[in-house]
Amino acid sequence: MTAVTEFAENDRYEVVVVGGGPAGLQAALLLARQLRRVLVLDSNRPRHSATLEAHGFLSRDNIPPNELRAAGRESVQAYENAEVQFAQVQRIRRQGDGFVVSARGVRGTPNREVFADRVILATGLKELLPQLPSLRAFYGTDIHSCVVCDAWNERDERIAVFGAPGAATLAYRAAQLSRIGSHVTVFANETQISAADADELRSRGIVVDRREIDDVVGERATLTGVRTVDGEITPVDAAFVLPDFAAQFDFLDDDIRPDTDARGLVAADEFGRTSVAGLYATGELTAPGPEVLIIAAGKGARTAIAAHRDAVGL
């Protein structure tokens, strides 16, 4: 039987938010404005750490992601009933009607063990990129993962499209980019793009290359081409890669793991309520997965409203 841990008043919170991206910080902000005592625990390992600019966020277009997150933390911490701490959550377990959250401090912050009436998971997704030796050298500058976010910056360029083994929407991505680039080449095998879809793409002037990619190449941090396994280099100026993704909630005890969908995303209602009472999930952690930042923030707002309403109880 698990021992019951007693907590001092300053280590008890109405809501703990795990994750300090747009979804988590937006949720925390609205909860703070409802006078909920809220703590945000953020590992400070954002998925977009290599990205130089965030796009499409109203009033914050072209802002560096780290500046957007810093501004969000400042907004939350302006409320005396809200805290944000850099810490890596190690374990969340059930205690009574609430949860015990244990976290290891990072960047010199203290370790924490706190009690929460409710927990909101806003940890986002981990990108599983193709295993190309030089991909990381260009990722976030000339190689991107979000067409909606970054395609405008690569207009009139020669663009390559490729993905991780499980990438299932490469045909759609290539079709999107054919409106943007001067020339689009999509690298995909038959399981990623069917013969019928390949014919449709070719009818739109898109090159469908069935060869396996060996690596991406460039000069002085500028992408110049995609090299296939036969050694041939296809000249390009930019590329869009579709990763596989993995949800991040391994710190939950087995008895409070929420239901997931076929993709491994947390199954939740439209407000972020999961199959576990008092446990919510929001942002990219829930279907449909990766989204533009402003949508993730909006989902965080809806989840905060739901958590507050559930706490009121009427």
Automatic annotation (TrEMBL):
| SUPFAM superfamilies to which the protein is assigned, alphabetical | FAD/NAD(P)-binding domain
What organism is listed for this UniProt entry? Gulosibacter bifidus
> Which controlled-vocabulary keywords does the entry list?
Flavoprotein, Oxidoreductase
Q: Does the keyword Flavoprotein apply?
A: yes
Gene3D superfamilies for the chain: FAD/NAD(P)-binding domain
**Residue limits of the FAD/NAD(P)-binding domain?**
13-299
Q: Does the keyword Cell cycle apply?
A: no
Q: What is this protein called?
A: NAD(P)/FAD-dependent oxidoreductase
Catalyzed chemical reaction(s): [thioredoxin]-dithiol + NADP(+) = [thioredoxin]-disulfide + NADPH + H(+)
What Pfam families does the annotation carry?
A: Pyr_redox_2
Question: InterPro entries, per this entry?
Answer: FAD/NAD-bd_sf, FAD/NAD-binding_dom, Ferredoxin-NADP_redctase_2
The organism's place on the tree of life at top rank = Bacteria
